[in-house]
Amino acid sequence: xxxxxxxxxxxxxxxxxxxxxxxxxxxxxxxxxxxxxxxxxxxxxxxxxxxxxxxxxxxxxxxxxxxxxxxxxxxxxxxxxxxxxxxxxxxxxxxxxxxxxxxxxxxxxxxxxxxxxxxxxxxxxxxxxxxxxxxxxxxxxxxxxxxxxxxxxxxxxxxxxxxxxxxxxxxxxxxxxxxxxxxxxxxxxxxxxxxxxxxxxxxxxxxxxxxxxxxxxxxxxxxxxxxxxxxxxxxxxxxxxxxxxxxxxxxxxxxxxxxxxxxxxxxxxxxxxxxxxxxxxxxxxxxxxxxxxxxxxxxxxxxxxxxxxxxxxxxxxxxxxxxxxxxxxxxxxxxxxxxxxxxxxxxxxxxxxxxxxxxxxxxxxxxxxxxxxxxxxxxxxxxxxxxxxxxxxxxxxxxxxxxxxxxxxxxxxxxxxxxxxxxxxxxxxxxxxxxxxxxxxxxxxxxxxxxxxxxxxxxxxxxx
Length: 464
What we know:
By secondary structure, the chain is α+β, with helices and mostly antiparallel strands. The protein has helices at residues 2-46, 49-52, 54-75, 81-109, 199-206, 208-268, 270-273, 276-302, 319-333, 356-372, 403-406, 430-440, and strands at 116-128, 134-138, 147-149, 158-175, 178-196, 315-318, 339-346, 351-354, 378-385, 390-396, 444-450, 454-461. Helix 10 (356-372) packs antiparallel against helix 12 (430-440).
């Protein structure tokens, strides 16, 4: 059984891991698709802001005109590359605050409900010539940041587009007192980028329904898996307990039935019929075995009752005298001299209202178990406390009960230990019935036990 259950659990875990992997993969793909769709929608929303905003357009013209004039000075030898870049940076810095302010205004007009940072970064500036091109600036070779707009950390940059404009430009410059036309062809490459504030949370919020549904399905699958395995283990355990019970009761019934069969055969013999003594002895044997069979049947029927079905006939009982009588009668009934029953009383209230017959049965079941599962010398300690409730602790020095078995010790038909090596007769009903009796009195029964040391059963019955 254990091997099958382990294989079932392993197979279930592997299946759950595979299902989790597939579900995680699908959610990750959905997240990527949602993210790309969200970013693309945002790109489309802001793509035309530069083109249709007069204020932004005029600011862009300002820095471009300044840049082209400086480039004309470079062509005439009145400026070098650093002058071009420094002047470009200077003019961009001078209009940057105004540019950011106007850009945010345009975002408001677009009704975009989340914060966006935007900038244009210069990537490359090249003077084109039929002979040889002159690269003024290349971001890959000279990682200088010339940015118009918001400052965005590199890790948060989301590319919007890369734009390039090529144009030929003519500027009039006075050289050596003469006005000359300076013509040049230029390639200007810029990258537009943005950062969407909290875009991950926005995408996850859009996926909240899917995530919630996935979590619910996952929990349901785990719950069903747990329930199925737990139910399978429970059913298998119940089947094993029932099989054990059938084996036990079959064993218990075989002896009296075999004796009855033998006695019946003896009564048929002529020599037995002629002897009154033999007939009487055989009849007495049949009567004893019949009573034994009846007792077994009554034990199965009566001890199977639940606490709701037990009809109590309560009476007022003197606690100390009542328990002393039970212990004295029990010890008197034991044939072995190696049994010691110690008792200690802490009496507060002297009387309690209980059903004497049922409580006696419960106490005797526990005492008999202490004898059945004992060592060679049996010591039973009974501690009785009646201050707040009737608390009876019965401690033995027997073989003890494992932690695993303690959880099931009060279940119907359960017998602690290895069912294959039981050497003690019983049907596994005694402690179940004891528990039902105590429950019927609205009390509790608990057990403390260690293997090889012994067990303590604690009965707690409230005063009415």
